[in-house]
Design a protein that fits this description.
Elements: H1 29-47, H2 52-65, H3 68-80, H4 82-90, H5 92-97, E1 109-113, E2 118-123, H6 132-135, H7 140-143, H8 145-153, H9 155-161, E3 171-176, E4 182-186, H10 198-202, H11 207-211
Parallel strand pairs: 1-4, 2-3
Helix pairs in contact: 3-4, 8-9
The structure holds fe (iii) ion.
Fe (iii) ion (FE) binds near residues 124, 126, 128 and 129.
């Protein structure tokens, strides 16, 4: 008998409670790389690029121009502009686009807000889905099996390893990213930042604070690059 594996079949038969609409295999570093290569390739085709130099430029862009500093601008705006914050939490993609930020992997953004009651943390349990337009390329640990498994089973333990201690009274909510929906955390504005301009606030917002595995820096502790 012939066996016609049409493209897009899930070879692993994931029993998972969210619609993880992927067509790449999961479970290895290679699959994450494959996913990235496929995304880059289709973008190149869309743009009509064929030159290897163009590919190099795109990789360079993701490594240098597109990064967490963009997400940090979104967070700082939300901290200083209540109307923007409301739009961001209601419908993140168009709100983020107001700052000229968006693109592949950020078409369906959801921003979740940390409060004294709830701390949010983002993972992709199946592979490495990540909000590229606001955070750039994912860190290696985000793609690694230990984080993907333990973020769900023991989020508080994972946070401890990141040096983050969340009060026992604060609930931890873990958001599982998919190819469709990418999450970003809106951290709480640190104390002592009253009156700081938006740009100074953005410098306090780390990548990990927007994944939920970190907290924003305190004023005076900015990392200068
Ligand atoms: Fe994924």
């Amino acid at each position: 008998m012939t066996h016609d594996h049409s493209h897009g079949d899930d070879p692993h038969g994931h029993a998972h409670d969210h619609a993880h609409d992927h067509d790449h295999p999961h479970g290895s570093e290679l699959s994450a790389v494959e996913a990235r290569v496929r995304a880059l390739e289709s973008l190149l085709v869309e743009k009509g690029y064929v030159q290897p130099a163009a590919l190099d430029a795109l990789v360079e862009m993701y490594e240098t121009e597109i990064g967490p500093h963009l997400g940090a601008r979104v967070v700082a705006r939300a901290w200083t502009d209540p109307a923007f914050r409301a739009r961001l939490l209601a419908e993140a993609t168009p709100a983020i686009a107001e700052l000229g930020i968006g693109g592949r992997g950020g078409e369906h953004m959801v921003v979740v807000e940390n409060t004294p009651e709830t701390h949010n943390m983002v993972v992709c349990t199946l592979c490495s889905c990540y909000p590229w337009p606001v955070l750039g390329l994912p860190p290696v640990w985000y793609k690694a099996p230990p984080y993907r498994a333990r973020a769900v089973s023991d989020p508080r333990g994972v946070l401890r390893e990141f040096g983050v201690s969340i009060p026992e009274t604060t609930r931890i909510t873990v958001w599982d990213s998919t190819a469709e929906t990418r999450f970003m955390v809106l951290p709480m504005r640190p104390a002592g930042t009253e009156g700081l301009p938006e740009e100074a606030l953005a410098a306090l917002v780390t990548r990990d604070a927007m994944i939920g595995t970190g907290l924003p820096l305190s004023p005076g502790a900015e990392i200068r690059s």
